[in-house]
Amino acid sequence: MVKGAQKIAGWILSVIRVLFGWMWLRSGYDKLSGGFGVESLIPVIAANHDSPEWYKAFFSHVVSPFSGVFDVVIPWGEILIGIGLIAGLFIVPALIMSVFVNANYILADMIFTYPTDILMATILLTGKRLTSYVSVERWLYAKWRKDWNGAEKRM
I need a surface site. Which of 19, 37, 63, 149 has the fewest CB within 10 A? Predict the structure, then answer.
C-alpha cells in the first residue's frame, strides 16, 4: 500500500514539477520575445521604499553597468530553469535557481506570485525523490549506477 501511495505521489509531484517548469519556460520566453530590459527597473528600484538599501546599491553599481548582460541572462536563466524542470534533468539546481530568482524579484518589491513560487519550489525540493519519479534524471541515475557498479566489479 505504501509503495502505491509513493507511486501516486511521485506522479503528482512530477506533474506539478512539469507545470512549474512550463511557467518558468513561458516567463523566460515572454521576456526574451517581449523586449525585456533591466534598465527600466533601475530607477523604479532606486525610488522604492520597500527594497533594502543594499539591494538598491547592488542594482545601481552592478546591474546598471551590465544591464545588457542581465537583459540576456535573466530570460535565458528562466528558460533553462523551465527546460530543466520539464525534462526532469538537473532538478535540484533548477529549483534552487528558481528560489534565487524569485527572492531577487521579491527584493525588488515585485511581490505578485513570487512567494507562492518559492513555496512551490521548496515543496518540490523537499520531496525530491518523488519529484523526480518521472524524469530523465531517474533513468540516467539508474543507468549510471549500473555502469558504476559494473566498473567497480571489474577493478
Answer: 149
pLDDT in tens, 27-82: 999 999 988 888 888 888 888 888 889 988 998 899 989 999 999 999 999 999 99
Neighbours of 90 (CB within 10 A): 17
Q: What is the pLDDT of residues 81-114, one digit of tens each?
A: 999 999 999 999 999 999 999 888 888 877 767 7
State the Rg of the chain over Cα.
19
- Of 59, 79, 57, 85, nearest to 70 by C-alpha is 59
Report the C-alpha gap between 126 and 121 in whole angstroms: 9
Encode 10-30 in three state secondary structure. HHHHHHHHHHHHHHHHHHHHH
DSSP 114-129: HHHHHHHHHHHHHTHH
Q: How many CA atoms lie within 13 A of 58 on its CB side?
A: 9
